[in-house]
Amino acid sequence: MLIKEVIEHIEEFAPLNYAEDFDNVGLLVGDEETEVNGALITLDTLESVIDEAIAKNCNLIISFHPIIFAGLKKLNGKNYVERTVIKAIQNNIAIYAIHTALDNQYKGVNNMIAEKLELKNRKILIPQKGSIKKLTTFVPVENAEKVRNALFKAGAGSIGNYDNCSFNLKGSGSFRPNQDANPAIGEKGKIHFEEEMQLGITFPSHLESKILQALFSSHPYEEVAYEVITLENRHQHLGMGMIGELQEEISEEKFLESLKSVFNAEVVRHSALRGRPVKKIAVLGGSGSFAIENAKRAGADVYATADLKYHDFYKAEGKLVLADIGHYESEQFTKNLLYSFLSKKISNFALILGDTNTNPIKYI
């Protein structure tokens, strides 16, 4: 299997279209045409991880965090990023990073956190904008079912827990083929009126080329009239963070102890307790201070995330408890998520779960 074929499987799970604009995802080092000997799945890519890949005969590292985040202007080994990239190149090891593309997936990073906390009634905390598109096209009535079904098969028409969703409106379309046309219906040089179905259907933006291919291959017309627009609607199954409910109310102290235990955290930093039982929990793996207000508006009793600064804790304002469990701790199970998915898809080379601890923070 080639690296590009592995990438196809990864991006089936977490399309890069949904990564945040600031991020640097995809194949960062290496040639996608290279044949894969083995793949090491890890949270971070460091020199020690490259050493592990060498020892385990892996020439592909699938990493959650991108080792190259900002632009590199030189490669002379002056810092840990440059040294890691140089070592990877010298040993013909490719590096692929998924980061916020997986953060934004419903079954991604935050769902894994919610799973560990056994939260029910889960929803995306900050649904993503600009990820839903709408296709409008016009089809002869007798061909409408064929076109509609082709679009459904390509992945259009799913809204939350519903699929095969479309809007259909009958009307009359007109056209006049010129002398260079090859009309399926009507005659050259004559205006033709045809009873048509206006078909409206939504689809996730990463499927646009597949949806249009299905439209063109199933539509009878030589020239297909259609338009695609991006909707302002938020995608309820894509976005940052997650909110859900505990099976039953528990005390704040008991929940914080549970957080510490489940995520093997040396310490949990938190804002002032409110003296109330908690049930509604918001989570966001990694740096999550930007979502404090979202957690408040969602009615969370506790917001568990990482990398909160001193002044961030003031933002609790007695409306919820902010809990910082640590960046590494909040995302540590992500590599298991990737391994679980890929092991079901790939069987013709070794997939290895990396065991290098890349947490840079230590406690005394």
From TrEMBL:
Keywords: Metal-binding
NCBIfam families: YbgI_SA1388
Full protein name: GTP cyclohydrolase 1 type 2 homolog
One Pfam family in the UniProt entry: DUF34_NIF3
Gene3D superfamilies: 3.30.70.120, NIF3 (NGG1p interacting factor 3)-like
Signal peptide segment: none
Family: Belongs to the GTP cyclohydrolase I type 2/NIF3 family.
PANTHER family, sorted: GTP CYCLOHYDROLASE 1 TYPE 2 HOMOLOG (PTHR13799:SF14), NGG1 INTERACTING FACTOR 3 (PTHR13799)
InterPro entries hit by this protein: DUF34/NIF3, DUF34/NIF3_bac, DUF34/NIF3_sf, N-reg_PII/ATP_PRibTrfase_C
